[in-house]
């Protein structure tokens, strides 16, 4: 091969990423959610609220409360988190970077729509999708397109919308879908408009040779790079993630101090619920039993709707996990945009008579 000619990306690497994605999502998401949908239809429930662990109120702040929440949360998401780490590291080492640049690299409306569409079958929680976000940004996906994929995992999750329809009512699912589309497309567009400089994390130090060195794609070298990327991503993301989950689990009683009819539809409660929902972390579809329990306790539909929209898309741990992939201003826009959508959701739920 002429040294100056580009080396050919191995087809086996592309096939391996496709296999991991299809097999992993079927095992972790598609098959379990298919069965869970029938449970939701028959029982109008998908389990107890993870906030309270089946109790009437969150436990008092303590190490025990932190460990209990981390255990319940960890058991719910560990398979998806492992899949996210595998996919995120595989994207940046096994896929041709030009593919990511072609489909998600241009900061335009088409890239935002593409990111949103790709998120629909993924269906990961915000933290489990974070490693994939790291991989996409490593391959120069535009910030807004990447954010659309990230937010769409939770807000456009078809399984969660089905659970919501059977458990809470289809009017709640419709509200969530409408605001989810607005959030994914609107915040994706906003981040692309802000993108004046490239903030892509530094890539593999060997990447400069990828275009001309045939040995760069030898199976042994590719797999070693994948193993290094996986280990580096896990060591970088998981410690801070675990610490923040423990802190939020311990602080549940402070973040949700009252869970009864005294939480009415006043603007103060709606704004407070939107802010808390933006910070707190839950597993996929965890917002459905939380809101169901709150409504049963007499909580106003405004704060309940705010939590329905803000709990899933971002959280303090997930924002920390992607902090090296976005600029601080972009993360601030994401967080404030999610909180603002929560306030809007509360107002719409009241105006549309959800509590009637």
Task: Provide tags for this entry.
15 helices, mainly alpha, 356 residues
Description:
The protein is mainly α. The chain has one domain. 69% of the residues lie in helices and 0% in strands. It contains 15 helices and no strands. The chain has helices at residues 11-43, 63-94, 97-104, 109-119, 126-138, 143-155, 158-167, 170-194, 219-250, 252-255, 267-279, 287-296, 301-310, 316-321, 328-351. α11 packs across α15. The longest helix is centred in the first third of the chain and has 33 residues, at 11-43. The termini are far apart. Mean pLDDT is 90; it is low at 1-5 and 198-209.
**Poorly predicted regions:** 1-5, 198-209
Shape: globular
What is the CA-CA span between the terminal residues? Answer: 73 Å
* Beta strands, count: 0
Q: What is the SS-derived class?
A: mainly alpha
What's the structural blueprint in terms of helices and strands?
Layout: H1 11-43, H2 63-94, H3 97-104, H4 109-119, H5 126-138, H6 143-155, H7 158-167, H8 170-194, H9 219-250, H10 252-255, H11 267-279, H12 287-296, H13 301-310, H14 316-321, H15 328-351
